[in-house]
Design goal:
Elements lengths: L4 H18 L1 H8 L18 H8 L4 H10 L2 H8 L4 H12 L6 H19 L4 H11 L3
């Protein structure tokens, strides 16, 4: 039995309302249902804070946000998705549910554009910890 778009929307709303009520773990479990392709064009996001990713994505189209969230680390996706207003979470989830297959060119293009938006302000560079590790390695 195939769901209508309205039924699918309501189903996803229920899932996300449940996730919102019980916390981030449920959002992560919902996201784990979506298959991630082997393409790793978003590897530069590994050290990006969810807040920085959210700020970069919040002005993007819902489809673009959904594509990014489907292709990145599940915890980062859940933490980032959790920052959107509840109604947008549901809309993004519907878009995610409809992503079956994308061209590699499209995913790479989105990744490249996002990279230019986020890297100047969102990557953790090491700070005090990096300096301490470097200084430990200095010879006396």
């Amino acid at each position: 039995m195939q769901m209508t778009l309205n039924q699918e929307f309501l189903h996803i709303i229920v899932l996300f309302n449940s996730a919102i009520d019980t916390g981030r773990q449920n959002i992560t479990s919902v996201l784990k249902r979506y298959k991630v392709n082997d393409m790793n064009y978003f590897s530069y996001l590994e050290d990006v804070a969810p807040k920085n990713l959210f700020e970069a994505l919040q002005t993007e189209q819902l489809q673009t946000i959904a594509i990014v969230l489907v292709y990145i680390d599940r915890d980062l996706a859940a933490n980032t998705l959790n920052m959107f207003p509840d109604d947008m979470k549901a809309q993004i989830a519907i878009k995610m549910a409809h992503i079956d297959e994308l061209s590699e060119v499209a995913v790479k293009s989105i990744a490249n554009i996002l990279e230019t938006k986020i890297l100047p302000s969102g990557v953790k560079l090491g700070g005090v910890k990096a300096v301490a590790e470097i200084l430990k390695r200095l010879k006396d």
